[in-house]
Amino acid sequence: MSKLFGWFSKNKHSDKEKGKQSQTPVPKEESRSQQPEPVPSDLKQVEEVDAPAENSQPVITPPNETAEPEKKVAETAELATASTVEIKTQTDAAIAFEQDEKPDLPDTNAPAVEAEAVVEEIAPRHNEDDADEVIPPAEKQAGHAVTAPVKAPVTEKRSLFSRLKASLSRTRMNLGSGFVSLFRGKAIDDDLYEELETQLLVADVGMNTTQKIITRLTESAKRSQLKDAEALLDILKEQMREMLNQVDKPLPGEIANHDAANGPYVILMVGVNGVGKTTTIGKLAKQLQQDGKKVMLAAGDTFRAAAVEQLQVWGERNLIPVIAQPTGSDSASVLFDALEAAKSRKIDVLIADTAGRLQNKNNLMEELKKVLRVMKKISPTAPHEVMLTLDAGTGQNAISQAKLFNEAVGLTGITLTKLDGTAKGGVIFSIADQFAIPIRYIGVGEGIDDLRTFNADEFIDALFSETENRVS
């Protein structure tokens, strides 16, 4: 029994010694190794941890640790295994939960990325010439649908045509859509022709041209045995289209066919005061410049106050050279100097202004003839275009102006201005019928683009449009 009691006491004493050994504090270096290792975010960090530092000093082990037997270290590690495994298991579970449930958050310590770099990464830069419209990257990220852009030329064409219809609204009340209400539901008889004649005269088509239209329309109705007035309207529309087609000869085509070896293409602008001649020069110069032409202006109106300054403003605005002399100088002398300068500077188009004059003043008309003679001394074919500017609002007085200017200097082109502010636009048919002089441009507004190259088909389509455009 005493032996058994002694053995039991020995074992109990041995267990106490082991307990003391387990309570022995773990050295600082060993406690660090027992902590759960952090999970690296990428392989690069793992490599950096595992790789020994090149300049690191060898670890010096304290004497008390070297004295510990290898068996004691193993026993101590076994005692910490249970708690270490439990802590590591909880840590792994927490990390896995965060990776599965939490979204990736930006690193607050990372340097801020510039907005331009983000845009480059999401949507590379595009050239302005490569696409009509670039969708902002923010809209692409938000999931907005990318809509195919509307082509600019189509939009521009529709816009210009709608503006033309709006500018002709007052004339269209008598012509075009005014005819629609006149012919609708009517029988073809003398009363219809009388009403049509009245409407043409009110629109300032002129007596001679009106009679010609009525006669041709009557013959066509009899020949086709028409009884429906609406069918007669289509014939009237085509007759008026044919009348304008014979004067539809755009000036840019004439300039393109000019031989530059003979010097610049010279445009001599003539007309009475107040028709918009100088303004037309400025708009025309800008359009030719946009077409790639080198343009020069000559301030030949040396009589009207501020005429030279007005032309110089147009030149400064568009970076176009202006040849001028003080007010009161000889107009022919100014144009002579301008033509010489244009030839030496290799100018493509020279536009020469002249003083406004009434068509019934013989002395002023003779002065205009002198200008032509002086120009021909430098260039026998100059001027290549003698353009008369007419105000559409003057009605039949424009016919008188065209007749006398044509007799004096031989007109080669006509610009009809201020069509947007008058109901007398029918004078264009009278001009086309009586003179057969090409109508180069029409003015339908104040903007530079409102000086429109005349197009007979567009003009008729806009005139006969049934869409009402109210003028404010």
TrEMBL record:
<dbReference type="InterPro" id="IPR013822">
    <property type="entry name" value="Signal_recog_particl_SRP54_hlx"/>
</dbReference>
<keyword id="KW-0675">Receptor</keyword>
<feature type="binding site">
    <location>
        <begin position="271"/>
        <end position="278"/>
    </location>
    <ligand>
        <name>GTP</name>
    </ligand>
</feature>
<dbReference type="Pfam" id="PF02881">
    <property type="entry name" value="SRP54_N"/>
</dbReference>
<comment type="subunit">
    <text>Part of the signal recognition particle protein translocation system, which is composed of SRP and FtsY. SRP is a ribonucleoprotein composed of Ffh and a 4.5S RNA molecule.</text>
</comment>
<feature type="binding site">
    <location>
        <begin position="417"/>
        <end position="420"/>
    </location>
    <ligand>
        <name>GTP</name>
    </ligand>
</feature>
<keyword id="KW-0547">Nucleotide-binding</keyword>
<protein>
    <recommendedName>
        <fullName>Signal recognition particle receptor FtsY</fullName>
        <ecNumber>3.6.5.4</ecNumber>
    </recommendedName>
</protein>
<dbReference type="InterPro" id="IPR042101">
    <property type="entry name" value="SRP54_N_sf"/>
</dbReference>
<keyword id="KW-0472">Membrane</keyword>
<dbReference type="GO" id="GO:0005886">
    <property type="term" value="C:plasma membrane"/>
</dbReference>
<dbReference type="GO" id="GO:0005525">
    <property type="term" value="F:GTP binding"/>
</dbReference>
<feature type="coiled-coil region">
    <location>
        <begin position="219"/>
        <end position="246"/>
    </location>
</feature>
<dbReference type="GO" id="GO:0003924">
    <property type="term" value="F:GTPase activity"/>
</dbReference>
<keyword id="KW-0963">Cytoplasm</keyword>
<keyword id="KW-0175">Coiled coil</keyword>
<dbReference type="InterPro" id="IPR004390">
    <property type="entry name" value="SR_rcpt_FtsY"/>
</dbReference>
<keyword id="KW-0378">Hydrolase</keyword>
<dbReference type="InterPro" id="IPR000897">
    <property type="entry name" value="SRP54_GTPase_dom"/>
</dbReference>
<feature type="domain" description="SRP54-type proteins GTP-binding">
    <location>
        <begin position="438"/>
        <end position="451"/>
    </location>
</feature>
<comment type="function">
    <text>Involved in targeting and insertion of nascent membrane proteins into the cytoplasmic membrane. Acts as a receptor for the complex formed by the signal recognition particle (SRP) and the ribosome-nascent chain (RNC). Interaction with SRP-RNC leads to the transfer of the RNC complex to the Sec translocase for insertion into the membrane, the hydrolysis of GTP by both Ffh and FtsY, and the dissociation of the SRP-FtsY complex into the individual components.</text>
</comment>
<dbReference type="GO" id="GO:0006614">
    <property type="term" value="P:SRP-dependent cotranslational protein targeting to membrane"/>
</dbReference>
<dbReference type="InterPro" id="IPR027417">
    <property type="entry name" value="P-loop_NTPase"/>
</dbReference>
<dbReference type="GO" id="GO:0005047">
    <property type="term" value="F:signal recognition particle binding"/>
</dbReference>
<feature type="region of interest" description="Disordered">
    <location>
        <begin position="1"/>
        <end position="81"/>
    </location>
</feature>
<dbReference type="Pfam" id="PF00448">
    <property type="entry name" value="SRP54"/>
</dbReference>
<dbReference type="InterPro" id="IPR036225">
    <property type="entry name" value="SRP/SRP_N"/>
</dbReference>
<keyword id="KW-0342">GTP-binding</keyword>
<comment type="similarity">
    <text>Belongs to the GTP-binding SRP family. FtsY subfamily.</text>
</comment>
<dbReference type="InterPro" id="IPR003593">
    <property type="entry name" value="AAA+_ATPase"/>
</dbReference>
<feature type="binding site">
    <location>
        <begin position="353"/>
        <end position="357"/>
    </location>
    <ligand>
        <name>GTP</name>
    </ligand>
</feature>
<dbReference type="GO" id="GO:0005737">
    <property type="term" value="C:cytoplasm"/>
</dbReference>
<keyword id="KW-1003">Cell membrane</keyword>
